[in-house]
Every structure is written in C-alpha cells, then in structure tokens.
Amino acid sequence: MGSYDIERYLNVRSAYGASFGPDGERLSFLMDTTGTAQVWTLETPRGWPEQRTFYDERVTFASWSPERPELIFGMDEGGNERAQLFRLDAETGEIQNLTAMPDAKHRWGGWSHDGDRFAFTSNRRDESVFDIYVQGRDETGEDATLVYEGDGWLSLAGWSPDDSRLLVSQAYSNFDQDLYVLDLEDDADERELEHLTPHDGDVRYQSASWAPDGEGIYLVTDKGDADTLYLAYLDLETRDLETVIDGEGWNVDGIALDDETGRFVCSRNVEGYTKLTVGEFDIDNPTDYEAFPEPDLPGGISGGVSFDPDAERFALSTTGDTVNTNVFVVDIEELRSSGSATESHDLETSATERWTDAPTAGIPRETFDESDLVHVESFDGLEVPGFLTLPDDHEEGQTPVIVDIHGGPESQRRPSFSSVKQYFLDRGYAYFEPNVRGSSGYGADYAALDDVEKRMDSVADIEACVEWLQDHPAIDPDRIAAKGGSYGGFMVLAALTEYPDLWAAGIDVVGIANFVTFLENTGDWRRALREAEYGSLAEDRDFLEEISPINNVEQIEAPLFVLHGENDPRVPVGEAEQIVEEVRDHGVPVRKLIFDDEGHGFSKLANRIEAYSEIADFLDEHV
C-alpha cells in the first residue's frame, strides 16, 4: 500500500487559465480547491487569492474585459457541455447569466477591444450547426444579435483591431479547417463570409490571430508539403502565405499575439515537451521579428498565454511529471535584457515569477516520480513513442504496470502532472503512456495511420508496447492492466478482444463499445467531425460493425471495470450499458459505475475519489 490515499492525491491542486485584468494589477485564474474548477483572483505574486465563483459545477474559462473590472466565464451543468456564459462584476461580486439558454452550447469568441460587446458561436437555432452572435455586455438571452447563420462547426478567433470584423474558423475534421473573415459593417441581409484559405484535400489552419494593423493573419498550418505545423503570415490583400517560424520537424502548436504591440509567444511541441519562442514582430515587415531568450520555467510543458494590457508581461501555466500546474508571469523587458536564457530550472528567475501557489495536499514534491521517454518498434517497424514511469524502490521483474491509453484519437500523452498516475506509482504500479499511431504531435502522416480501415493497426501498436513491457527487467509480464478514457476506452476494449492473453484487467472510462451506436447517438453537432476520423455510417457501416468490441466480446478474458457519466453528450452512456451486459453474459467478471451528475469524464471531487478508489480496489483484486 502507498503512503497516501487517493483522496489525498486528488486534493493536489492545479491553477491555470490565467487572464490579466484591465489595469494589469489583478490576475484571474481557475483553481480546483473546492473540488471543481472555480474563478479566483490574485493581486500580488503568491499572495492570498480571492475566490470569485462558488458553484458545484466546473468553470471552463474566464476572460477579463479589456476596459472594465468585469469578466466573462463559462460553465455547463452536470458535464452536459451546453456551456452558458456569465458576467462577473469584480467590484460587487454580482454574477449574471448572459446567455440563459440551457439547451444550447455557447463557444466563447472574445471581447471587443472597447469592452462594449462580446462574440460567440452557438447551436441555438439548429443543434447540428453553429451560428455567430454578437451581444452587448449588458444584454442577456435573446438580446444577442445573430450576425451570421452557419452551416457547420464554426468558431471565432477574435475581433479585428478596429472591431469591425471577426475572424472565423470552420472545422471539417481535426486535420482540415478553413479561415474566413466576417465584416460586421456589411448590411445584415448581404453579410457573407470572406473565404481566406480555399484548398483541396486536408489542410490545417489553426491558432489564427490578427496582425496589429489588421492587414494580415498569423496562423499555424501544414499547407504545402509540410507534414508538421509551421507558423505563417497570411496577407489579406494578396492572400500570399509566408513561413515565419518552421517547426523543424515538430509542430508549432500555436501563437498568442498582442495585436497592439506585435509581441508574441509561440510554442513548439518537441517529443511532448514545450519549446517557447518569445518575440516582437517588426511593424514594417510582418514576417520579421526580434526573438527574446526563452523563459526559464519548470516542468517542461507550458501554455495558456495571457498578455497584460501593455504587453509588458504575460501569464501562462506550466506543469510537468513532478510539477503540479501553476501560473507564472514572465516580464518581457527583463527577459529581453537578460541576453540569454539560464539553463537552470529554479522556480523563479529575474524574468519569471510564480504567481499561484496551488498546494500538493501535504505530499512532498520530491516524492513524485518522473517519466522516461521511450520508443517501441511496432509490427511494421514504426517507432511508437511513449512515457514510462517506474515507482521508487521497484523490484526487478515484480512490478505490475498500468498501460494508460489516451483518447482523441488525435491527441497526445505528454509528461504533465497527473495525481492519479502519482497515486498508482506510490502504490507500486509502473505507468506506461503510449502515443500509438493516430496520435497528434508527430506530424499529419503519423496521425493518419489509423484512419478508418487502418483503425486496428493502432491496436496492434498496443500489442507491441505490451510485448516490450514484458521484456522490461522491472515489469512482471503477468500483471499488465489496460486503462483508457473516451477513444482510449475503445482501445482498452479492442485490446482485450484482439489480444486477450496479454491482460490481467481492463478499465474502460467513457469508452466506445460500438462505433455504429456511438455515431448514431453522439451529439448532432459533432457527428460529421467524428465520421471524418472513424468512417461514415452511410459508407463504412460493415467495417465499423466488424471492429466494434461489442461484436467480439466473446474474446474478452480479463476482468473489466466500466465507468461512465449519465450526461455524456459525446459517448452516450448506452455504450457502457451494452458492453457490461454482454461481458457479464459471457461469464467474465465485470464491474460498472455510472455517475448521474457527470458527462464525458469526472469533474467533481467526490466522484473522482469514488471512481479511483474503486479502480484501485479493482486492480488490487485482479492485478
């Protein structure tokens, strides 16, 4: 048994989602001290924070007005993902529901620069598509103005510097998007989207930001022969696209840009670790920039950049295997004058200061274990990257291991802090997190290796990883468990049906058991996006039936634990119900846990404690 119970580990806190207030003297952030993420504010580094929201439900984001002491935050109910937007008056504490349409999703699009309006997209009119709305800061509900009727998955990338236009993104899949401009000054009955990125095939256009003069767009893309994303500048008049920062074989994940000064922070994802470029664009040549030293941050993974009003500082969150998430503030002028980035990894340097103090529940930070990046050769010679973490004082050949498979599938396991992982390490389990083919972060070609008819090749990667683990001197080859959530839950079920003799147990969290019923019952707003990855009901139904674990359930031999949220809008709870019934009918030990106040995952502390306590008991019994 470990030194601390799961409740202790789940009380390790995270602070993230920072936003500077309009005076630059106050910082908001999200922290889960109460058990679900709420809005907090802070006026001095590592001072006493003030809690601003007090809900049982999670807050998903918070964004300060650029002009007034108020912020807008988002929150859904019971994990249903139908987020509403709320305005918090930071002086009085008064909170107002701005959207008040609980049956619709609302996706934040940003404040106008004068703080008088905000924009969002919503599926109010038709559940399957997103329209564009603009709303005054004092308006509520139906007062919002429908400025454009969409016909797909629309989201917003911000207002132009003069607030006359909106930058619009339309997604067809995770690897294919388009960008448009919507001119709000056009007559409503003549308003159309101006298409900026016409293309053939799949091309990614992501993380778009207006240039300071409003005459161009910065974005990341893989247009052309690129396999990975690079930072580019798109001239709105000529439509010329010019490379600004090449990822050098790795994805440029995104850019945060202050559209008044041209200062920016750009991130690259190198084998799962973040490499930051901080700089300032040339006002006369938008593809030239001055680069500053890279800030010294702990943990290895950073993101969520927010500039202060004068762009003299920026806040971001940082995390790592042994570093729980906290917000740091970087002073750009000090960074600029430092000459070169220090090679040390102290928590604070002259340019970098930690602002939040999310606690570790009294667990010493030095007891957290760090992962090693490894590469496993799969059945066809493909190198599959992953992160292996061994517990302290493990016994050679005696260590059980949890193979934790990410969802997505266009996602990536990175060496960020996980209280659940550290809990199981403390209990003596090793932890292996593979990034099988289909994962993001390694180029478009790698991500496409599991598309539709190649789906089961990614499951074969799991077999190769398990065989590699069986040969590892620390691992007990007879005590290997599979765990995964969402698409990772499908991977667990598929691995148990395809390679039943490899596993001591399986844990399926909000996973897909039947691709046909999943696609039939998932939210209308996301079906087309998912069919682009998995295959369509119209054209690929037979194949989807063939690979669905529910239709191969007689192969499962390992005990199975299935957990789900009753309100899941992505993978409906029926997926859990049907796999449990079928596995039980075949005489295999199976356990089920359904939370009636959760959705696609578990956000409430009490539910997380119950879920992982039962998972620990299940693993102790069978592994």
From TrEMBL:
Q: Which InterPro entries match?
A: 6-blade_b-propeller_TolB-like, AB_hydrolase_fold, Peptidase_S9_cat, Peptidase_S9A, WD40
Q: What's an example of a GO molecular-function annotation for this chain?
A: serine-type endopeptidase activity
Q: Name one Pfam family in it.
A: PD40
Q: Which GO terms describe its biological process?
A: proteolysis
User: SUPFAM superfamilies recorded for this chain?
Assistant: alpha/beta-Hydrolases (SSF53474), DPP6 N-terminal domain-like (SSF82171)
User: Keywords of this protein's UniProt record, alphabetized?
Assistant: Hydrolase, Protease, Serine protease
Q: Which part of the chain is the Peptidase S9 prolyl oligopeptidase catalytic domain? A: 415-622
List, alphabetically, the PANTHER family matched: DIPEPTIDYL PEPTIDASE FAMILY MEMBER 6 (PTHR42776:SF27), SERINE PEPTIDASE S9 FAMILY MEMBER (PTHR42776)
Q: What is this protein called?
A: Peptidase S9 prolyl oligopeptidase active site domain protein
Q: Which organism is it from?
A: Natrinema limicola JCM 13563
